[in-house]
Amino acid sequence: MEDNEFDVFVIGSGIAGQTVAKACVAKGLKVAITDNREFGGTCANRGCDPKKILLGAIETFELSKNLKGKGISKTAKIDWRQLQKFKRNFMVNIPASTEHNLAELGSTLFHQSPAFLDENTILVEGKKVVAKKIVIATGLVPRTLTMTGAKHFKESDDFLNLKKLPKKIVFVGGGYIGMEFAHMAARAGAKVTVIDTGKRPLHAFDADLVDELRKYSESLGINFIFEATPKALKKKRKQLTLRYEIEGEEHTIDAEAFFNTAGRVPALAGLDLEKGNVQFGDKGIETNTYLQSTSNPNVYACGDVSDKNLPLTPLSGRQGYVVAENIINGNDKVLEVPVTPSVVFTSPNLATVGYSEEEARSRYKNIRVNFEVATGWFNAKRINAPLYAYKVIINDRTGEIVGAHLLGPDAGETINIFTLTINNKMTDRDIKSTIFSYPSWGNDIKSMV
User: Fold this and answer.
1) Which of 38, 79, 216, 350 sits most deeply, having the most CB atoms within 10 A of its CB?
2) What is the tens place of the pLDDT at every residue in 143-168?
C-alpha cells in the first residue's frame, strides 16, 4: 500500500474519531486521522471538561453563600484569573498527549480539514489521499448568526478562555451553553442578560422545572428577554449595542461582550461532501442503521455529526465503536441507544431522562405525575439549598417509571439512578423496596416515586 493510501481515514479527533482509529489500528488496518484544530476534540479541550472545572468554583461559591451565618462566616470569593489558570493546568497537555497516543499506536496524523475529491479520495495538507473507508467525526460548531455585525459576537471557546470577566455580558440563546455560562458569569460578579427567541429557556427540558430555574436565575440577577429577534450588533468604542425586536417593536441593549449561544450545528463546511457523494441535512450526515452514508457506502459518520446522534459525549463513543465494528467485520453492528440522561450544569443542575410529561400522556392511557418543589426536604435544608424540585412520571397501570426530571444540587448524579431504573424497566415498588445509603441524595428518590 502506498504512503498516501489507507484502509481507514478518520476526520475528527474527538472521542468518536479516536474510538474508530484505535479499534481499527488494533486490528492491523492502516489508519490516518486528521483534525483542523488541536487533537482531542471539543469535549476535552473546549467543552464539557473545562466547563465542569470552572463549575467547581461556582458550586463552592454557591454553597458558601447558602451557608453563610450557618457555620460559614464569609461567602467565598471567585478569583476568575486563578480559576482560569487552574483550568488550563488540566487542558494544556491534552492535544499533545492525544497525538502521542494515536501515533504510538500506529496511526498517521494530519493537521488540516480535508476536502473530498471523489468517493474515496480526499485532499489534505496539499496531498491526495485515497482510503477504502472514510469516517466523518467532525462534531458540531456554533450556529452562524447572519445579522449585521455578527462578526462581533464571541463564542463558547472565548468564554471558557476569558482572562478577565466583563462587567456586562449578554448571551444570545438560552440553551445549555447560554444558561450554564450565565450562571457562572453571574456568580463571578458580571451583570448578565439572556436573550432568546422562544418563550422560555431550555426548550428541551420540563417546563415546570425550567420555570423554577428561571425564577431562581432571576434572583441571582440574571435578566431574561424572551420572544426577541436579534437584528444587528454594533461595535462602539468601549462597548457594543444589540438591536432586537419584540412583536415588531425595536429595542436595544448595551454590554461589553455578546456571546453567540444560539446552538450548535454539524461541522460540515469545507468538506466538499457533494464531490464525495455524501448526502447530508440539517441534522448531519444521512446514515443508515450501521452509521454508513446512505449515498456513499465507503463513508461512515459518527458522533455529533451523524444524523443518529444527540450531542452527548457518551453517545459519540458508542457510535465510534459501532462504526469500527462495521468497518472491521462488515456491517453486522446496528446502533442501539438506551434511554440516555441529559444534564444542564447550571447551579443547581437540571437533569432529565426518559419521557417528558407530554410524551408520556400521548403514549400511555394513564400516568402518574409526581411533581414537587422539595426545598423542605432534609438534604436541601442541611445545606440551605434554595432550590430542589422533581417530576417523576409513572405508568399507572404497571408502576413502571418512564420519565424523571430533577432540579437540585446533585441532580446531575441522581439522574443516573433513574437512568438505570428506566433502562431496566423498574417500578415504583422496586425503588421503594431498595435500600439506599441514608441520608443521601440517592435515597430521596424513594420519596419521589
Assistant:
1) 350
2) 999 999 999 999 999 999 999 999 99
In contact, 285 and 181? CB cutoff 8 Å: no
Which run of H or E residues covers position 228? none
Percent composition of the chain: helix, strand, coil (DSSP 3-state, to 5): 35, 25, 40
DSSP 70-136: TTB-S-----HHHHHHHHHHHHTTHHHHHHHHHHHHT-EEE-S--EESSSSEEEETTEEEEEEEEEE
pLDDT one-digit tens code per residue, 278-337? 999 999 999 999 999 999 999 999 999 999 877 676 788 999 999 999 999 999 999 988
Helix 80-91 and helix 48-66: axis angle, to 10°? 140
Cell of residue 4, nine digits: 498516501
Cα separation, 68 vs 73, whole angstroms: 6
Contact status, residue 187 vs residue 62, Cβ threshold 8 Å: yes
Per-residue cell: 320 = 465510534
**Cell numbers 451565618 correspond to what residue?**
69
Cα–Cα distance for residue pair 309/439, rounded to 1 Å: 37
